[in-house]
């Protein structure tokens, strides 16, 4: 049971939530072809709609680390620095990483 899950949580201004969801719905999908990548979900907190979490599920930690050290990862995250909206450029994620220990 080696599965590895990464959560990247952001809190955005309420009036920007729909815009951010739209951005993720149109994401590049670069990560989708990486070896060991299993799934992507964008989660919205039920009680705090301004809190959005990207959940990436990986076959194992090594697969995630290969992605996180890649040029593709760097390119995807560089785009975040060039949002046309100044409020969104300032948003910084809280990242949490989990090893799946039971299913």
From TrEMBL:
InterPro entries: ABM_dom (IPR007138), Dimeric_a/b-barrel (IPR011008), Heme-degrading_MO (IPR050404). Signal peptide: none annotated. GO terms for molecular function: monooxygenase activity. Keywords: Monooxygenase, Oxidoreductase. Residues 4-95 form the ABM domain. The keyword Ribosomal protein does not apply. It comes from the Bacteria. This is Heme-degrading monooxygenase HmoA. It comes from Alicyclobacillus sacchari. The lineage of its organism: Bacteria, Bacillati, Bacillota, Bacilli, Bacillales.
């Amino acid at each position: 049971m080696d599965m590895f899950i990464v959560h990247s949580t952001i809190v955005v201004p309420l009036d920007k939530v729909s815009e951010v969801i739209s951005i993720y719905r149109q994401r590049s999908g670069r990560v989708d072809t990486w070896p060991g990548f299993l799934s992507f979900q964008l989660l919205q907190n039920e009680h705090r709609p301004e809190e959005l979490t990207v959940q990436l599920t990986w076959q194992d930690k090594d697969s995630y680390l290969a992605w996180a050290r890649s040029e593709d990862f760097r390119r995807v995250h560089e785009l975040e620095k060039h949002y046309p909206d100044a409020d969104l450029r300032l948003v910084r994620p809280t990242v949490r990483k989990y090893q799946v220990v039971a299913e």
